[in-house]
Design a protein that fits this description.
Helices cover 77% and strands 0% of the residues. By secondary structure, the protein is an all-alpha fold.
Length: 87
């Protein structure tokens, strides 16, 4: 950007900084949410809950499907075959 553009946009610098911060937090949250190791650990805890009788078969199936979807998205992101979003 040129000097004049920078001077004109100076009042918006706090907003641009805030947006950058929000993007960084969102990126890290997505990284943790789709982390394969974290998803596998959640799958193991889910199976333990089923075996302990804390949840029923129907709830287990629903939650397992959600976790497997997250794992699939994680795999797509790592191989670059996702929906066009950057990992």
């Amino acid at each position: 950007m040129g000097l004049i553009t920078e001077v004109l946009l100076l009042p918006f610098a706090p907003v641009r900084g805030s947006l950058w911060t929000v993007r960084q937090v969102l990126t890290e949250a997505e990284r943790q949410y789709y982390d394969p190791a974290a998803v596998r650990a959640e799958l193991a805890r889910l199976e333990q809950r089923l075996e302990a009788g804390e949840i029923g078969e129907e709830e287990f199936d629903r939650l397992e499907d959600e976790l497997l979807d997250r794992l699939e998205i994680s795999t797509q992101r790592s191989t670059g075959t996702g929906n066009g979003t950057t990992p």
